Every structure is written in structure tokens, then in C-alpha cells.
Amino acid sequence: MQGEVRLLTFNASVFAKMGNLMEGESCILFSIKAGLCDGILLTSFMDLYAKCGELINSGQLLGEISSRSCITWKATSQSGFIQDGSYVEAIELFRQMLDSGLKPGAEILGSPLDACMLLGALQIG
């Protein structure tokens, strides 16, 4: 089972980079039918949806991940909302992450700062 989850995670990542939502969703359907959904795999699917511009689906998956890490939050904000030009939403996600008690590292801080810069909201950043 663990090998299958790793393979699905890898495939979701490849399809996300290619912007191939149709093939990515076939991975999602397979994983649901096989009962292979863990937090890492769901984060990969969330990243897939975000990179393919399916921000609502990405946000819904974020709500289904019970133990969120900084990587989980970054997958949504950096991959999706900033790429899509939804800077206000990206900043709001960052605020939600802070409210959840997570302390972002330097690799995470770049995303909200980019959003602030692109938004022109220097008073926020």
C-alpha cells in the first residue's frame, strides 16, 4: 500500500507540473476507490488542483486534511492562489495558517511576501 501511495503522490505531482487536470483526477478517483488517501497524498492532490486553477477544489481538500503542516498551507497559497493572481486569498490563507499556531520558516514566508508585493500592499507585508 505504501508504494502505491508514493506512486500516486509522484503521479499527482507530475500531472500538476504539466497542468494535466484530467489525468490528475483519474489518480484522485483511483485513490478514493482504493482507499489510499493520507495527508501527503491529499496535499499532492490539493497542489494539483491549485496548479490547474481549480482553487475551490484545492480549498475543499485543505479542509479535509486534519493535521496540516506548513507544506500543506504552502501548496495551496503558493501553487494556486498566487499563481492565479488571487493575492488577497493567498494572504488570508497565510493568516489562517498563523492562526492555527504554525510558525512558518523562511521557505514559507516568501509566498505571502510575494502576494503582498504583487498586490501592492506594503502595509500588510
Notes on the structure:
- It is a single chain.
- This protein is mainly α.
- The N and C termini lie far apart (43 Å).
- The mean pLDDT is 83.
- It contains seven helices and no strands.
- The chain is globular.
- It has two domains: 67 residues; 58 residues, no CATH class.
Fold blueprint:
Layout lengths: L1 H17 L2 H14 L4 H13 L3 H10 L5 H15 L2 H13 L6 H14 L6
Helix pairs in contact: 1-2, 1-3, 3-4, 3-5, 4-5, 5-6, 5-7, 6-7
The gist of it:
The protein is mainly alpha-helical. The chain has helices spanning 2-18, 21-34, 39-51, 55-64, 70-84, 87-99, 106-119.
Can you count the helices?
Answer: 7
**What does the largest sheet look like?**
none
Low-confidence stretches: none
Number of strands: 0
Assembly type: single chain
Beta percentage is: under 5%
Domains, number? 2
The helix fraction, in percent, is over 70%
Key attributes of the depicted protein:
125 residues; mainly alpha; 7 helices; globular
